[in-house]
Amino acid sequence: MNSIHSNEFSHNGFTLTEPEILEIICENHAPEIHPKFDVRSLFFITENIIKHSTHTSIILKNDEIKPQNFDNFISPLCALKSIGCEMSCKAVHENSAQTTTLGIFGKLTKYSWEAKAVLALAAFAMEYGNSWLLSQLYAQSDQLTTALAILNRVPLLLNSTANFKKQQGTVVELNKTINTTLQVIKCILKLDELSAHTDPNHASLKSAKKDVPINTYWSILTIVSCATEVFYLTRDEEKPQAVSILSHFVTKRINDILAKLKRQLTICRKEIDEPKIYWKLLKHVAHAPRKITHVFNTLILFKDDAYAKPATLSVGYTNKEVFDIDVLDGKYITFYISTLDNVSHKDILSLKEVYEGTENNQCKIVWIPIVEDWTEYGREEQFMEWRYKMPWYAVQYLSPATIKYIKEEWYFQNKPLSVLMNPHGDVENLNALNWIRIHGINFFAFRNINVKTWIAPVVQEIMTPTLDTWMKEGEYIFFYGGTDDYSMERFRMKANSAKVSILEELKIHIKLFCVGKMEKGRSLSDDSNAGGFWSSIQSLLSTLSDYKLHGEHTALRKQVHKLLSCKNDESGWCVLSKGSSVVTSGHGWAISRVLDEFDQWKQQILHEGNFGTCFQAYHEKVIAQTTTSGAHSAGCSFGNARNMECCPVCKTPIEATLVSYKCCRMCNLTPY
Predict the structure, then answer these.
(1) What distance in Å separates the CA atoms of residue 567 and residue 538, rounded to the nearest whole number?
(2) 3-class state of residue 441 by DSSP
(3) How far from the centroid of its chain's Cα atoms is residue 301's Cα?
(4) Which long-range contacts link 600-607 to residues 24+ away (Cβ below 8 Å)?
(5) pLDDT (tens digit, 9 = 90+) per residue, 613-663?
(6) Rg for the chain (alpha carbons), in Å?
(7) Which of 238, 443, 625, 663 would disulfide-bridge 647, Cβ 3.0–4.6 Å?
C-alpha cells in the first residue's frame, strides 16, 4: 500500500491520514455485480476527449475527433453531471479537496474501484473538453457558439495577451497532470483485465491489486485538484496559494503512483507471460529440424515479442552483427556461458587455444553472457569490455525464455560453463569447460563421455604411443597405481602371473600400464603421471556434478566415486578396460583376488566366451562376499544426515569429514 506520513497530510491541508481515508472508502464500497454501463467504453471515450483537449493549446486550431461507433453504449449522464457538480461547485468554495473527493466516493458506492475512477475522469473530461471545444469554435462568431462560450467563461481565457502568456504555462502543467492521471487509471484497468484472465491468487498481481483502492482515491483527488485549476483559469482573479500547494502535492503523488504501477504491471506481465513464452520456446526447440543452424536460431535467437530488444549475434573484436547464421552450418558449437561479472581471463586464454586450433576446422565458439537487465548501469560497457578480448562470436540481449532454458536445461548456476552442441543441434557435453581448461584443443576427446568410454579422455594426459596402440586395437588393459611401492609391485607380479595363464588357456593378451605412485596428500596438480591422471578424474567428477543426475550419468558418477574411494587405499587401485571401454574398477586387493582365483571362474569364460563380462561378474562376487562375511563390521560414525552418502563399494552409509569419507577399513574414501 502507498502511504504518506501524517505530518505531510496535515501540512497540505488534509484532516485525515491515508489509513483513515482507506478505512472510510472501503467501508462505503459495495459494488453491484452487474455494472450499469460499460466501463471500458466510457474510458475509451474519455481518453479520446482528453487526448484532443490536452493537445489543444490556447492558440486556436482545429483537431478533428474521429467518430467511433458506440451504438449500444448508454452514457451514465446523471452520474457524470452529479460528479461534475461536486467538483466544480464545492471544491473551491469549501476549500477542501479531501472532503470533495470523499463526497464523490459517497456518490459512487455501488461502483467498482475501476468504475469510480473512470466516472470521475469522464465527468471532468466532459466539462474540460467542452470548454476547449468552445474555445476553438469561439472565433467563428456563431451566435449559438458565442452564447455558450460566454456561459462557460471561455472569453476569460482569451481576454488579453498578458493573461494568455500566464495561462499558457498553467495549461501545460495542468495537461501533464491530467494525462498522468489518465495513465494511472488505464493501469488500474489493465490490472483488472489481468485479474479476469489469471489466477487471482497470483502473488505479484495480488500485491498490485491491494493498492487499487488507495490509487483510485489519489486519482479522484488529483482530478478534483485539476478541476480547481480549471475553475481559476476561467476566473478573473488570483489563484490562492493553497490551491498551488495542493496542485504541486497531488501532481508529485500521482507521478509516483504511475511509476510504481508501471513497475507492478511489468512484473505481473512478466510472471504471467513467461511460462507461456517458455512453453512456446520448448515446443519450438522440440520441433526444430535437427540441424545446428535451426536449433541455434530457434533457441539462442528466440524472438520474444514482450522483450524490448531481439537477440543479436556478432563476430570477432569488430562486434559486427552476423545476419546469416549459415556460417555455423555443419559445425560443432562450444557455448561459453557466464555472467558479465565472472568471465575468467584464464578461460579466455584456454578458449583462444581452442579457437586458434579449430577456426578453419569443425568447432565454433559462441560467448553467451547471461544478463537479466541490460538497462542496469554499466552493463553495455561491461559487455563491450569483455567483447573486445574475444575473437569469437557473442550473443547479446538473450530473451528471458532463453535464459530460463539455459538455467533449467543446461543447469547454469551463475558460474561459467561450456556446453558443446553437435552439427545436429544435440548437446553432447553439458560442461566441457573443465576439459578445455586442462586439455585445450584436445577437449574434443571428452565430447561424448559415458559409463563405458570415460577412461579414454582421462588417460590423454598420460598417453604413450604404446598405450595408444593397445587402446585402438582393443586390448585388455590393467591401469593400476597406488600410494605404496610394495603393494604396486605385488599387484604387478600377480597380474603378470595371471596373464600367462590367461594367454595359455584363453589365448587372450593382457596388458599392464602403471599410472605411478601417488603420495598421500600430494597435490593433484603435481607434474607426474599420477597427478595428471587424478586431475582428469577430478575434472570428470566436476563435470558430472553439473548434471542433473539420471540414467547413464548417475552410473558414471558412481564409477568415478568408486575409483576415488580406492585412491589412497594401501592395496592400490585398478581399472580394467578393453581398449577404451571400461570393464570394471576397484581396490587393488579385490582385483588381485579375482586374478588369484582365475581357476575358479575360467570355465565361465569358456561357457560365455567373454573375458571382460566374466571378470566383472566375479569381481562383484568378491565384493559381495567380503561385505557379507563381516569384513565391514567395523561400523561407521554418522554425522549430519544431509552429509550422508553411501560407500560405492559396500553400499553402507558414510560421513563427510574434514579429512575423508569414513566407511570402514576396506572402503576409506578420499574427499571429492
Answers:
(1) 12
(2) helix
(3) 16
(4) 602/505, 602/506, 605/506, 606/506
(5) 999 999 999 988 876 665 443 333 223 333 334 555 455 444 433 333 334
(6) 39
(7) 663
21 or 632, which is more confident: 21
The grid coordinates listed for 70 are: 458506440
- For residue 187, how many C-alpha atoms fall within 13 Å in the half-sphere facing its CB? 29
Cell (9 digits) for 365: 565458439
Contact 556, 648 (CB under 8 A): no
Strand, coil or helix: 598: helix
d(CA 125, CA 119): 10
User: Going by C-beta distance under 8 Å and a sequence separation of 6 or more, which residues neighbour residue 421?
Assistant: 292, 295, 332, 333, 335, 427, 428
| Total residue count of the chain as it appears in this document | 672
Please determine, for residue 521, whether its predicted confidence score (pLDDT) is greater than 50.
no
CA neighbours closer than 13 Å in the CB half-sphere of residue 655: 12
Question: What pLDDT does residue 359 have?
Answer: 53
Residue 246 · residue 221 · CB < 8 Å = no
Residue 201 is which amino acid?
N
Cell of 180: 498522468
Instruction: Please state whether beta strands 312-315 and 417-421 pair in parallel, antiparallel, or not at all (unpaired).
Output: unpaired
Mean pLDDT, the chain, as a whole number? 79
pTM: predicted TM-score of the whole model, two decimal places: 0.55
Does 60 have pLDDT greater than 60? no
- Higher-confidence residue: 454 or 665? 454
d(CA 378, CA 661): 46
β-pair partners for 396: 312
Q: Are 405 and 390 in contact (CB under 8 A)?
A: no
* Cell numbers describing residue 65: 475527433
Q: Cβ(490)–Cβ(483) under 8 Å?
A: no
Q: Which three cell numbers stand for residue 267?
A: 512484473
Q: Judge contact between 573 and 566, C-beta under 8 A.
A: yes
> In terms of DSSP bridges, do strands 645-646 and 653-656 run parallel, antiparallel, or are they unpaired?
antiparallel
Return d(Cα 26, Cα 46) in angstroms, integer.
Answer: 26
Three cell numbers written together for 216: 483510485
Grid cell 496535515 — which residue?
10
455-477 exposure pattern, b = at least 16 Cβ within 10 A, e = fewer = bbbbbbbbeeeebeebbeeebbb
Least Cα distance to 368 among 450, 312, 287 occurs for 312
35 pLDDT exceeds 80?
no
pLDDT at 93: 47
Residue 375 burial by CB count (10 A; 0-12/13-18/19+): exposed, middle or buried?
A: exposed
Amino acid (one-letter) located at 266: T
Q: How many secondary structure helices (H) and strands (E) does the chain include?
A: 24, 14
Q: Who's near 657: CB < 8 A, 6+ residues apart?
A: 639
| Phi, psi at 606, each rounded to 5° | -65, -30
Instruction: Provide the residue type at 288 as one letter.
Output: A
What b/e readout covers 323-359, taking b as 16+ CB neighbours within 10 angstroms? eebeebeebbbbbbbbebeebeeebbebbbebbeebe
Q: In sequence order, which residues have a C-beta less than 8 Å from that of residue 255 and are 6 or more positions away?
A: 180
317 residue type, one letter: Y
- Give 174 or 141, the one with higher predicted confidence: 174
Contact between 611 and 508 (Cβ < 8 Å): yes
* Distance, C-alpha 154 to centroid of its chain: 57
As a whole number of Å, the end-to-end CA separation of the chain is: 50
CA quadruple 321, 326, 332, 333: dihedral, nearest 10: 20
